[in-house]
Amino acid sequence: AATETASAYPAVSFKNSDGSSYQLVAGERYKITLAFRGHYSGQYIRFVTSQQVPTMGVNLSNSKEFANLNYAPSQLGVDLDEWGTYEAFFIPEETGKVYMLLSGNADRCFDIDSLKIEIADESEASLVTFYDADGTLLEKRFGKIGERLIDREIYHTEDKKFNGWRTEDGRLHTANLIPANDLELYASYTDYE
Question: Is the pLDDT of residue 96 over 70?
């Protein structure tokens, strides 16, 4: 890893053993794991892809975020100054070099060990794609099989109300876990009575 900076926030880049920049490929399925210990609540670490050294802030205009570790002990279930683990599955939107961005004083607020980014095993994670009733793509969720699936939020229209998610063949989908295989779900609506 090498520290580079384009702002007051450090950006750590990752190198291959030959010294070239480690890159993620758009559309590939990955898994990131690491061990962490947080010393202060509210600090975060973002992982992004970018073709240049990213700038940190609300608008990461030259980068695409693929993972965000926001250290809040109550949410992560890991007390301050205790070691915990983080695991996330993701599909990068763009091909690019990998950078780890540290918020504020995160370089003194976090300890990180055993960071690994690898191709996700098909038996570990699946993709759930949400479409509107007309086939418009709404959102993609890639996650660990068996973890809770949070439905895509749908708003009622003036003349229709949301009537659940349906599979391609029209069956109502009621499970709230990431399935063992990729799944496409379509919003269904009914008329108000």
Answer: yes
For the stretch 81-94, pLDDT in tens is 889 898 999 999 88
Strands lying side by side in the sheet with 83-90: 83-90, 30-38, 110-119
Q: Which residue has the higher pLDDT, 10 or 134?
A: 134
Q: What secondary structure letter does DSSP report for 23?
A: E
CA distance 183 to 175: 12
pTM score of the predicted model: 0.81
Q: Do residues 144 and 87 make contact, with C-beta atoms less than 8 angstroms apart?
A: yes
Average pLDDT score, the chain: 83
Q: Measure the CA–CA gap between 98 and 153, rounded to whole angstroms.
A: 30
Distance separating alpha carbons of residues 6 and 157, to the nearest angstrom? 44
Compute φ and ψ for 187, nearest 5 degrees: -65, 140
Q: How is residue 73 annotated by DSSP?
A: H
The label of the residue with tokens 């109300």 reads: 161
Separation CA 96–CA 48 (nearest Å): 9
Token pair 């690898």 in the structure block, residue: 118
Higher pLDDT, 189 or 10: 189
